Amino acid sequence: MIQQRGNFDWMLKELYDGVPGIEMIVVLSADGLRIARYAGDPDAADRVAAACAGLQSLAGAVAQEIPDSDGRMKLVIIEIDGGYFYLMAAGANAYLAVLSDIVCEPGLMSNRMRDLVARIGPHLTSPARHNGQTV
């Protein structure tokens, strides 16, 4: 069920077990590479990670237009027919993405994601890359 680089299994399983309705959890780098996943199809997790790179960039651009904002994206929630999508900044150059069904309560999910990131955010990091190489 888990595919990852590093040992994220217990971290992601705790979130998965603690919130009803989660379909997939993905940890990704800022440039859209999957670092870890829990549940769901590996190919789908790769597609979600790639899409998240664009979404976090878009959210950051919008955040820069808000007065007194630091311009960084913290949390994006998208309601979709049949479920929700959550994307949260989770460490240096890393993000936590969750897909859930409609049973999942958005307030509970965002609180649990925030708690997870606060406790283990330093472990959810990805080194910066330039031209595909780690910097």
TrEMBL record:
Pfam families: Robl_LC7. SMART domains: Robl_LC7. The keyword Zinc does not apply. Gene3D superfamilies: Dynein light chain 2a, cytoplasmic. The chain crosses the membrane at residues 83-104. It comes from the Bacteria. Residues 9-100 form the Roadblock/LAMTOR2 domain. The keyword Chloroplast does not apply. Keywords: Membrane, Transmembrane, Transmembrane helix. InterPro entries: Mycobact_SerProt_Inhib_Rv3364c (IPR053141), Roadblock/LAMTOR2_dom (IPR004942). This is Dynein regulation protein LC7. It comes from Streptomyces leeuwenhoekii.
